[in-house]
């Protein structure tokens, strides 16, 4: 028995004494892999083939086992198989269509698996013949488009999307998949939009459609004009955009719910008792258990929508009641195997539900709130590269949102208040926040809370510099909007100031270690300039004059950190070395902070001496601050309210290339055409026939 036959488990024994018999479809595959034209002696060969249940494993392994010389010998037959598959997609007999779609999947996967090092042109030639490829792919895409947009079976539509996902992800690097040139020319963009705009089809296929679109948008996006990018950027149809938002929202909501269930499960029973007995030594283990796989594919789809289409920003703000999604789907999804938490689409009953039930006890939510909750989960643990990239993508999305004028207006709308329960990392020195204590506030407060939470919880040996830079820049962009529009946000600014000062303290304490890997002066400059924003323009956006007083109080109270920072940057800037210029910028940026410290410290000491008080209270210090503003001289600093707008190319190109590769591998792994799904499909169409 050959290795291929063993591997596929193809053979059936009629009795122990007889030789095993091959299935008829396997015999027909063997004829295709022989030199002769299989239809030569049997004119009905192709008709009969597509009536047989596909043996995917055998066909794929057979393709993988073909060596170089055999490829030349059987190429005409492989081309003929591809051609007849495409023709069979137009058949009225639904079983033929099912079998043709699955055969095409096996062809794409098998040929690519065998020829990983071959050029895209060689693979096209082997599959369909290079001279006929344009027409073959045109016919294929037209038939897939027709099946996706028609009134036919939902199972067939699902299989069409599976084939397309299979085709898009057969290569590790999506941009090296030359066959996708034909998918660019023969666009299925409108078919994807139709699925997303229709409530019923969105429920069945929305998840696959959104992931497919996200991948197609990333095909050679920096090298040539990608029609999917162009078309996505100009979509203005409200039902379509809402549909896309609904798919993303439900996938993220499902992840959040599963995470919360897992969190509650870990907090109860024996584990909780043991943790309380031995203190916090098991907190890290608990955290690891909750660090479940993120859904980067759906996150990429959200990014592309936010980044490319300004109209999508309105979808982020669409209000709807927050509801709990049922744990188990009412409709099975046979084509999806067991996958890690967060990588599977949400349950179909939820996706099918056009109107969410209204309940006076439920607060309204929106996609942005769901995303912020999701980000608060994935940003907790950035210890491995996968989670680090997920956190980075969340912050890139928030960067795009913070730069958008409409999004900023919504974030700061005082008439649109929400109670956002962000997830927080377990830490020894603080109690777990109780959901009921969370106030209802403008959404920008939740964004700032998320940034502060990240700053406070990630000061560690393996310092995620890139994420810190993004966090501080997001805060800066929000402050620029508040200053520009003179929005006085009622926020606990002291928490932000405290977090930023502690960050500076951390940079100072770990100067030597961090400088070996990072330019800490750039981050220090951004942090100092945030304080400069508050000092220079705080009177235009801080909620009360008391808030401005408290800012000065915090700077004076923590003056030792700023003094130490000044000494450090002065030392580095006066010596020759690679950080001389970067440190010098921080020195100049500290001018007003130092002016405040040097002005108020003597006044406070004098007040304490005159009144014979060894330690002043906060109120007494604030009184000194208020009565000595008049004699304080500050320098006007230019450009504090200016920022560089986000641009994907060239800074983020390498990141997205690797991210799309990772997503593609994951999608390929989860595109399953297992025996169960085949049986379900064949049973469905057998009863129809």
Automatic annotation (TrEMBL):
Q: Which InterPro entries match?
A: ARM-type_fold, ARMD3-like, ARMH3_C
Q: Where in the cell is it found?
A: Membrane
Which Pfam families would you find in this protein's record?
ARMH3_C (PF08427)
- Its predominant location is membrane
UniProt keyword terms in alphabetical order: Membrane, Transmembrane, Transmembrane helix
Instruction: List the record's Gene Ontology CC terms alphabetically.
Output: cytosol; membrane
What sequence ranges are listed for the domain Armadillo-like helical? 435-671
Q: Which SMART domains match?
A: DUF1741 (SM01158)
PANTHER family, from UniProt?
ARMADILLO-LIKE HELICAL DOMAIN-CONTAINING PROTEIN 3 (PTHR13608:SF3)
Q: What is this protein called?
A: Armadillo-like helical domain-containing protein 3
């Amino acid at each position: 028995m050959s290795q291929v036959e063993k591997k596929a488990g193809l053979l059936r024994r009629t009795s122990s004494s007889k030789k095993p018999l091959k299935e008829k479809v396997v015999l027909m595959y063997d004829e295709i892999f022989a030199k002769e034209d299989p239809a030569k002696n049997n004119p009905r060969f192709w008709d009969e083939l597509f009536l047989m249940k596909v043996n995917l494993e055998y066909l794929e392994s057979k393709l993988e086992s073909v060596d170089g010389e055999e490829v030349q010998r059987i190429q005409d037959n492989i081309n003929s198989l591809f051609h007849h598959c495409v023709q069979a997609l137009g058949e009225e007999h639904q079983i033929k269509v099912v079998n043709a779609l699955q055969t095409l999947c096996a062809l794409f996967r098998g040929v690519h698996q065998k020829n990983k090092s071959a050029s895209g042109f060689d693979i096209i030639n082997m599959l369909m013949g290079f001279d006929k490829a344009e027409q073959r792919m045109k016919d294929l895409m037209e038939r897939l488009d027709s099946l996706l947009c028609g009134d036919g079976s939902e199972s067939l539509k699902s299989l069409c999307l599976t084939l397309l996902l299979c085709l898009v992800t057969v290569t590790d690097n999506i941009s090296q998949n030359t066959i996708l040139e034909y998918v660019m020319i023969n666009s299925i963009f409108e078919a994807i939009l139709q699925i997303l705009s229709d409530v019923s089809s969105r429920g069945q296929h929305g998840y696959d459609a959104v992931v497919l679109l996200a991948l197609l948008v990333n095909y050679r996006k920096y090298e040539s004009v990608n029609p999917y990018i162009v078309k996505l950027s100009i979509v203005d149809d409200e039902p379509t955009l809402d549909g896309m938002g609904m798919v993303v929202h439900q996938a993220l909501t499902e992840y959040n719910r599963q995470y919360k269930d897992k969190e509650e499960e870990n907090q109860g029973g024996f584990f909780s008792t043991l943790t309380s007995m031995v203190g916090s030594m098991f907190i890290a283990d608990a955290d690891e258990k909750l660090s479940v796989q993120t859904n980067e594919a759906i996150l990429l789809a959200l990014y592309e929508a936010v980044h490319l289409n300004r109209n999508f920003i309105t979808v982020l703000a669409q209000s709807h009641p927050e509801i709990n999604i049922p744990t188990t789907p009412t409709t099975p999804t046979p084509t999806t195997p067991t996958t890690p938490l967060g990588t599977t689409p949400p349950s179909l009953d939820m996706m099918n539900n056009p109107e969410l039930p209204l309940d006076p006890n439920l607060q309204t939510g929106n996609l942005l709130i769901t995303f912020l909750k999701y980000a608060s989960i994935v940003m907790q643990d950035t210890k491995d590269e996968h989670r680090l990239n997920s956190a980075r993508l969340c912050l890139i999305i928030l960067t795009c949102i913070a730069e958008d004028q409409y999004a900023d207006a919504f974030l700061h709308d005082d008439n649109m208040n929400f109670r956002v329960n962000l997830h927080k990392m377990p830490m020894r020195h603080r109690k777990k926040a109780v959901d009921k204590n969370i106030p209802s506030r403008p959404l920008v407060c939740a964004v700032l809370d998320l940034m502060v939470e990240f700053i406070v919880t990630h000061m560690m040996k393996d310092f995620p510099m890139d994420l810190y830079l993004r966090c501080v820049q997001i805060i800066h962009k929000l402050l620029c909007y508040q200053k520009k529009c003179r929005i006085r946000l009622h926020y606990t600014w002291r928490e932000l100031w405290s977090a930023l000062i502690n960050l500076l303290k951390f940079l100072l304490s770990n100067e030597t270690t961090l400088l070996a890997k990072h330019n800490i002066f750039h981050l220090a400059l951004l942090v100092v300039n945030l304080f400069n924003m508050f000092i220079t323009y705080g009177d235009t956006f801080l909620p009360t004059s008391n808030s401005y007083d408290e800012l000065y109080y915090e700077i004076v109270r923590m003056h030792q950190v700023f003094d130490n920072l000044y000494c450090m940057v002065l030392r580095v800037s006066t010596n020759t070395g690679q950080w001389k210029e970067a440190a010098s910028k921080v020195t100049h940026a500290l001018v007003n902070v130092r002016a405040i410290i040097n002005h108020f410290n003597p006044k406070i000491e004098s007040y304490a001496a005159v009144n014979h008080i060894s330690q002043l209270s906060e109120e007494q210090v604030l009184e000194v601050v208020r009565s000595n503003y008049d004699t304080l001289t500050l320098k006007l600093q230019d450009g504090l309210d200016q920022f560089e707008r986000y641009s994907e190319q060239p800074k983020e190109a390498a990141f997205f290339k690797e991210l799309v590769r990772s997503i593609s591998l994951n999608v390929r792994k989860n595109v399953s055409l297992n025996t169960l799904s085949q049986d379900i499909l064949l049973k469905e169409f057998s009863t129809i026939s």
